[in-house]
Amino acid sequence: MVYSYPSILQREANELNFDPTSLYSPMKLLNWPFPALLAWGLSWLLYTLLQSVGVANSWALIGATLLCVLLSTLASNLWRRFLIVLGFPMSQLLLTSATFSMPPLAWLCLLVLIVLVYPLNAWSDAPLFPTPSKALLEMPEHVRLKPQSRILDAGCGLGDGLKALRAAYPDADYFGLEMSWLLRLLCALRCPWAKIRQGNIWLADWHSYDVIYMFQRPESMPHAVEKAHRELKAGSWLVSLEFEARDLKPTAVVYGSDGRPVWMYCAPFTTKASGT
Ligand SMILES: C[S@@+](CC[C@H](N)C(=O)[O-])C[C@H]1O[C@@H](n2cnc3c(N)ncnc32)[C@H](O)[C@@H]1O
Fold first, then answer.
1. Is the peptide bond before 268 cis (omega within 30 degrees of 0)?
2. What angle do CA 211, 213, 218 make, to 5 degrees?
3. Which residue of 7, 14, 75, 275 is surrounded by the most CB atoms within 10 Å?
């Protein structure tokens, strides 16, 4: 069976209730993190209103938390719903507890730091989680590369993925692309042997790379498959730590010492349905 990326993309997107084509549309704010911001904002509003009309603090808190639970259904998956529900009482705790009391300027600095490390444009993909240092050591048994092969860590964070790749392929040429300027600078300092750029992995050109390595989110995978299908030359690889491209037949998969899978797909891809 010939691999057809729109059908794969659609099936994966349907399963995850996710529309990858909307990533860069003007309606992007309706995607994550908008449901979380909306739920927290409205819950705080209700909490303040209830208190202002004399409702006891505990009842105001219960009412606002229930609203937050209701609004959490706007999120596309269980994990995000859980985050939304947890977020409101957490923000209560942070703002009311003496232990966490900070001057407004400190809150502003914290907010700026969060946005620097995890810019809004990257919220559709993963925040900073490093690849464990030994996670990719078995990759060369399956992905054989010539010296000076070009490897891109798409969303390179602080460079832990690049370091883990280099431990497996000491002779390759390394490239990193990262949305956050701050992480891009720190990554360049930690990996002086790699070419690190600030940019968006979905807008970058993948044609020239032999391996695209990713450690993103399940929701990112349909988009990655579509892009890899369009841009990777035959014999190049899409490698994903932890998250599978569900409809593709992996060329190989290995499980690291912490049990995390490394999924490897060689272009041109085959679907699981094709069985070839
Ligand atoms: C889970 S971390 C992985 C970091 C690194 N690859 C590693 O394995 O150690 C994901 C990284 O991708 C970055 N990221 C998310 N979406 C991105 C995008 N669209 N373009 C570029 N970087 C992105 C995040 O800022 C974050 O640093």
1. yes
2. 135
3. 75
CB-side exposure of 167: number of CA atoms within 13 Å? Answer: 14
What is the 175 CA–ligand 1 centroid distance (Å)? 13
* Six token digits for residue 258: 């912490």
Instruction: Select from 62, 71, 74 the least CA-distant residue to 29.
Output: 74
| Pairing state between β 237-241 and 261-266 | antiparallel
Mean of the pLDDT values across residues 240-251? 94
User: To the nearest whole percent, how much of the chain has pLDDT over 90?
Assistant: 53
Contact assessment for residue 87 and residue 36, using Cβ atoms and an 8 Å cutoff: yes
Q: Give tens-digit pLDDT for 174-196.
A: 999 999 888 999 999 999 999 99
Pick from 118, 202, 216 the residue to mutate for probing ligand 1's pocket: most ligand atoms within 8 Å of its CB.
216
Nearest-CA residue for ligand 1 atom 13 is 155
Residue among 115, 178, 191, 258 to mutate when testing ligand 1 (max atoms within 8 A of CB): 178
